[in-house]
Each structure stands twice: as C-alpha cells, then as structure tokens.
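Reviewer 2 asked us to include a model.

Predict the structure of this chain.
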Amino acid sequence: MDEFINYAEKQAEKAENLSFCRGIKLLHIRDTVKEMLDFIGKSGIFEEYTVHNIDHVDQMLKIVEWLIPENTKRKITYAEWLMLTLSIYFHDLGMVVIKDEFEHRMETDFKQYKEKILQDTDGSEYGEYVRQKGDTFLYQEFVRENHATRIRRWIEKKSDKQLGKADVVCEKINNILENLDPMFRNDLAMICESHHKDDMDDFGKYKVKRQYGNDENERVNLSYIAIILRIADLLHITKDRTPSIARRFINVSNPISTIEWEKQNAVRAVRPKDQRNEDGIVDDSKQKDTIEITAYFEGAETAEGYFGLSSYLQYTRKELNKCCEIVEKAQKREGATWYEFPWREIDESQIEVKGFEKKKLQFTIDQDNILQMLVGHTLYNDSSVVVRELVQNGIDAVRLQTEYEKRKGKNYEEGKVLVEWDSQKRVLTFWDNGTGMSIQDVENYLLKVGASKYKDEAVKKEFPDFTSISHFGIGILTCFMVANDIDIFTNSIEQKEANSINLRKVNGSYLLRQLDKNELDQRIKRHGTMVKLYIRNDVDMTKIEEDLRKWIVVPEIPVYLSVDKKESIRIGYDTLKEVLKTYLNETGYNVDGEKYDVYEKVHGNVTVAYAVRYVEYMSDWCLMGVNNINMFNRGKTTLPIGTCVEGIRVEFSTPGYENRSILAIANIKIVNIKLM
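Predicted model (structure tokens):
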C-alpha cells in the first residue's frame, strides 16, 4: 500500500507533522502490524478463531466512517484520528503467539492458569473438551483472556514474561513506535487494553481533554476514542470475517468458535438504518441512531448460530446504551459538547431464517412468583435463605445416612456439613457426607419443584421414625436467587457410578452425566453430595458467616465454614443456653450468675432458653428484655431470638410473641404424630 484509502488513516497521517510524533510513519506502522497480525492462527494457536488480520482492521476503519457523526468528524483533531487508528491497528496484537513463546509456556503464569482451569472444570463437559484439546487450546484461552493486557505491556515497553515470552513481537512494536511521545504512547497502550475492560466512564483515567502539545490538533478525548474502538470492534461481525475457503481447511471443533463462525458467516451487512419522516420517506437530514443488521440463516443446523447472534446483539445493544450515557456525561461534566454518539438501538428486522423458528421454545418459570406461591414472600425475600436451604438438605442427608448405619449396627459419628466460600473465584460450595443422590433421586426429587424424597411413601415406610427438616423441596430452586450456574456432584451407595448435574439458569436446561467414582472429590468417594454455586457479581457475600449463624443455631449434625481455604470454624452451638450465654458475653454482659444469667428448660420436644438480669432495687431476678441491651452492643451480632426446628431458625420473634421483646430462643424436635 503506497497511500491510504480509509478516511481515518488519511486524517491520522496528518498528525505526523505534530510535535509529539515527528519521525513516525503511519504507512510503515501499518505494514509492520499487518505482518504481525498474519501470525495469528499460524502457530496452531487461534487457528479456529474468526479473522483477526489486517482485513479486520480495515473493516473497523470503514465502520468508524459512519459510526462517528459528521458534525463530530469535522471537529476531531489529527491527534485523535491518530490515536483511534493506532488503537485499531494494535488492539488485537496481543493474540500473536509465536512458536518460541508456546514452547516456554510453563515458565509463565500459564502454569497456574492451567491448574486452575483443570481444577475448576473437573468432571464437567467443558473440562473433558479441554483435556482432549490439551495445552494448545488452553494456552489459546490463556492468551485470549490476557491479550488486551499483553498489548498494553508491549506498547509500554514492559514485556511481562508472566503473560508470555514474546520478545520478538515486543521488539518489533518498540521499533515502530520509538519516536512516539511517551505520554501519547502510554495512553495508546491504555486505549488498546480498554476494549476488554469496563471502566470507560472513569474520566480521571480516560481524560476528555488530553493535551500532548500547544497545538489544537494535539488534543485527544481518550474516553471517546475508547468508546469508538469498543463499538467498531463489536460491530465487525459480517461474513467477510469468516471466509468460507478458510473454513473448509479448518476443523472448527471448539463449540464456542463454531457458533462464532456460524453467526458471522450469516451476517451480510451492518449499517446505519435510514431515518424516515412522518410520511415514511427516507430523510438523510435526520441523524441516524439505529444500527441495522442484515443476515440470513438457512437450515436447522444454523439455528445455534442464529441464537448466538441474537444473544450477541443483545449484549451489543447494552454496550451502545452504556456508551451513550458516558458520552452524555462527558458533555455535561467535561464540556465535550461536540463529541456525539447517537447510537442507541439495533434493528434485527432484516435477519431472516429458513428451516426453523426464531423463537426458542422452552418451559419458563416466574421464579419470584413461584417462590412466593410455595413458601410465602416474607420468608424468601432474603437471599441468605439459600444458605439455610442447602445446609438443611445436607443435614437431612447425613441424618438419613445415620439411620442406614444404625440398620447395620454401626454408629455414624463422622457425618458433617461443610460450607466453603472462595471470594476470588466467587464459588460457594456445600459439601456433606450423607446418602448422596441416585439418578432416580435427581429426576424425581431434585429437579421437581415441590417434590421431596422424604415425603415418598416408600421412604416413609422404610424409615417411619425419620422426619426431615426440609419441607418444601425447593432447596436448589432458591439457589438461583444468587447464582445462574450450579454444578452438583453426588454419590449414592445405591449406584455403581456417581452423578454430575450442571444447571444453567432457573428456566434453562440441565446436563446429567454419570461419573466414575474415582473422579470424585476425595470427600464424597464413599457417599455424599457437593453443590457448587457460581455466585453473581451483584450478590454481597461478605457476611457469609453471619448469614450461616443467623440460620444455623443448634444443628443436630456438625456444620463448618471455611473462607478462602482458611481453617474451618464451627457454626452453631451444642445447647440453646450456650447460644445466649455466648452472645451476652461477647456484647459486654458477663454471665456470672450474679448480675446476668441464662436458664434452659425442656418440656416434651420443646427446649427454651432465656436470659435474666438481677434488678437491685427490686432485689429480684427479671426476664431480660431486648430494650435492656445496650444499643451499641446490639449491632455487633445478630440477636439470638426466635424459634428453631431441629436447630435451624425459622422465626425471629421471641417465642410466643409477635415481636422481639424478651431475649429468649426455642428449639422444637420433630416427632412423628401417629393418629389413633
């Protein structure tokens, strides 16, 4: 290429005469970038990915021409065109992997990444796929996750060996950018990284009026450039990115890549939608604000591609609106009034399908309504109830295993429930060494809302004296209050193989697989269940211990909590008396029998503990009211007031009262009532 064709490059080339970039040649940079981009997919890494070469760059530059409104284009500086053009050149260069880099992969953070992935996906379908593909695929994923950071470091001349030993690439980048002003260069690195970050509204980082010299053309709106880069990249989803000739020679086996190829191979055009006046006539004078997608899917085998495109456009629509808000915020707060971003909507009416329906048919559940219908809104409006439900299920499973052991003449003393919280991975795990679940248990009880194994007539006949503490059969359903994805591993002594259940969304599908018991976590190899919840980012888990202690008071089975792999702590107490005594001592009321004391009484299957205080002017002991507790101390821990069933709190009022008036707590042991 002897001269530029794209408008953005032509304008960017004019910046070569500005003080901060004298000595650089944009054409030379482009040629070198083209050479490096051609390496993507050549080493066996990213060979199944859609096109990321110079054609991708050129298409993004073409999108930019209509993405930026005419009024803004006229006012954008040469420095801004240069920043935008270079960021488009470089944003995917972090995906370049040369053979030498791959051979030294175990000397980088890839080693830890690999261990983590294999551990986290153990027993899953994705885990099996990863193991089949080996290190080539895993290193690809490692680079993909880090490619934005890789290119930032390379541009900054900070070759981070832990992200891949790519000295040759880093040297090439340095050679073509060495005459670029250091401040501009560092900002370029930041912009390139921004297309994989979510912080473009940080005007302290992405300065709206960044000056690299005194000339007016040496000013850059970094926030706006980051937005244009992000959206231009998202919108390049046309057929030219998935050349059919390449697909014939590549066995696209990665399920994610397959959907990407299918959806992009179907897209014919991405363009501004014509605006019309009141008479329905196209009016070019009106500012366009909608992006029109033209695509064609033929045959049922392309359905996944269509649904993949639909989901992608839904995400893109959210990004458009987010960018609109950022630009409007910059206009108001920073005075950047001439930077416009009108795009708010995506029109999918020109997406045609043949051989299948656009609507994906499936059963749906109104989660909020069904929870209220089953148990009442007053109980299940608290997401921490998830903790209670799963611990209850674990306790029941251990209690039933105890009954099995009794039948054999054995004592089952090692039964327990363990809750583990990993704040980094945001994984909440519930483990018990109870009975586990057979395939029949999974299908008949776990996945049937309202069904309970313990209500089954066969179980009731076999264990007439056993009564569960879980009554509603919706333990797993409540998990969707805090997580979209759930993995369950369960091992029943009734089966030769264990079971793995992967649940995706409350109204989604599930995958049930049988596993060799040797593949299981050591703790459930004999029997038991492990439930993993992948907690959503919007759920606050900082009070996991408090949530557990709120519900788990005097459990029949030991319950433990471990946070971030630290030593586990016991949750709950042996007696109700101990509950109140511990609380009072921790909040400054010394239970010494002289000023404060705690009594425990048993009547039938009901146990009640209550606190008393000595009133000197009356020379007598009185029940300790909630108002007698210092307000400051009251907030330190949850008030131990309420009613428990089998050690699990179900009510938070003073037993026998409608409010919290007396510091007292009760526990009810469930007994079967036989009618005469």
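Residues 242-252, 371-381, 631-636 have pLDDT under 50 and may be disordered. Residues 303-334 form the longest helix (32 residues). We have added this to the supplementary material.
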